[in-house]
Design a protein that fits this description.
By secondary structure, the protein is of the alpha/beta class. It contains 14 helices and 10 strands.
Length: 341
């Protein structure tokens, strides 16, 4: 099986030659090719070279398009700052108050260079890797986009204390978001992973998820041209997972390393793919033996689960992660053999 066949078989719950393995190695590609991050996150050809190195070095079953959420905020006018070993961040948000949104026009995904960067990176990766390895785009859920434009704290206060204005903001964001994400699918992304801060128990209440986040997801996901995987955004998702089941286009959930995968399976049912494994930062601090031992435990626990992918949780595998730790994930999956055969 190649990686695309392995992922598609996992989605269908069919037998596998081995478990699919999906560490998030977006940032790590820059380390492999020695590319400065201000170039890596601005030049789609440089990014694509980094992901070719990821595939050649580690043979993951998914390649990820750029995880550069701040660049989406920059397309709205937020100011970026680059670092030497991490993703770009927002130095100054585009707007300060919700009233500023009245004069703010969302950027055009078909012409804005910061947004076309993502689309071109996907196109280049898809052209090179074809049907061998699926390309995944990672973008926050639509309810998180205003936080990239005005700051998370200001956006959360708006949702809490001025819900009518928050809805008006989302009326601007939703058509922009649908156009943007469908452009990713058209460029060659096989699915889109969506970190979900505005569904996380560490950020919002169940009431906000039910009354605000979930209706927006229902509306947006029904307009998308491809499958979606929700992401834990680096915190336990299980306490709110029941509020997110049955969404249109949703085929999987990436759980946090602290979430109970057996309970998550009970919540989402048998048809949804669960991704689970080691935290993207924790793996950097472990020995190879510790990585293998932890992966063995997880794989044994999910041995009877046909729709499971061994993955990392949180955002990107961090820059200083020893490469042998990443290799250990795949080697452990290979050593456990076939699934459902």
């Amino acid at each position: 099986m190649n990686s695309t066949e392995r992922i598609m078989a996992t989605l269908a719950g069919k037998p596998l030659d081995r478990r699919a393995v999906s560490p998030v190695l977006s940032l790590y590609g820059a380390r492999l090719i020695g590319c400065p991050l201000d170039q890596y996150y601005m030049d789609p050809a440089a990014y694509a070279r980094g992901q070719s190195a990821v595939r050649e070095t580690f043979r993951p079953d998914v390649l990820f398009a750029p995880l550069a959420f701040a660049s989406i905020g920059a397309a709205f006018g937020s100011e970026l700052v680059f670092t030497d070993t991490d993703v770009p961040n927002i130095r100054r948000p585009a707007v300060q108050t919700v009233e500023d949104w009245d004069l703010l026009l969302p950027p055009d995904p078909d012409t804005d260079p910061r947004l076309l960067y993502f689309r071109e990176a996907i196109r280049l990766m898809a052209a090179e890797h074809g049907d061998q390895v699926p390309i995944a785009m990672v973008i926050p859920i639509p309810a998180d986009i205003p936080g990239l434009v005005m700051g998370l704290e200001a956006w959360l206060e708006t949702v809490l204390f001025d819900p009518a204005e928050a809805q008006l903001v989302m009326e601007k964001v939703i058509p922009f978001y649908v156009q943007l994400v469908n452009g990713f699918f058209a460029a060659g992304a096989k699915f889109v992973a969506m970190p979900s801060a505005f569904a996380s128990p560490t950020i919002v209440t169940r009431d906000i998820v039910s009354s605000f986040t979930r209706p927006i997801l229902d509306r947006v996901l029904s307009q998308l041209h491809g499958p979606v995987i929700l992401h834990n955004v680096g915190a336990p998702l299980l306490p709110h997972l029941d509020l997110l089941t049955g969404l249109p286009a949703m085929v999987g959930v990436i759980m946090d390393q602290r979430d109970d995968l057996a309970r998550a399976r009970q919540v989402v049912g048998s048809d949804i793919v669960l991704f689970g494994g080691l935290d993207c930062s924790t793996i950097s601090q472990m020995t190879v033996s510790e990585v293998k031992d932890r992966c063995r435990v997880i794989l044994e626990e999910r041995r009877q689960d046909p729709r499971f992918v061994l993955s990392t949780s949180g955002p990107d595998v961090v820059w200083n992660t020893p490469p042998e730790n990443i290799h250990a994930m795949l080697k452990t999956a290979e050593s456990t053999g076939s699934v459902g055969v």
